[in-house]
Amino acid sequence: MYIAAFCVNTKVLKEKNLPMPKGWNSLLDPKFKGLVTMPTLLPPDGVSAGGSLIQMYGAKEGKEDGWEFLKKLDKNIGEYIRAGPVRRR
Question: Using an 8 Å Cβ cutoff, are 32 and 78 in contact?
Fold first, then answer.
């Protein structure tokens, strides 16, 4: 089982007078443009938490919807970061 969560900087929300995101789809709102940071989807080793997010969202919404969601989210991404590998059993 893979569980994905996001963290929110409440100080930034308050400074920018933004609502608390209620779920992944909330992050698609243009109000959050440039404020979303997430792991890179295609790291050199090919394994990332971002890749697991694609799988999680795709399983929930349908395979194509996982990629479509990320294409939309990309418009609000301020930075992609290199994260550690996902541990697989």
Answer: no
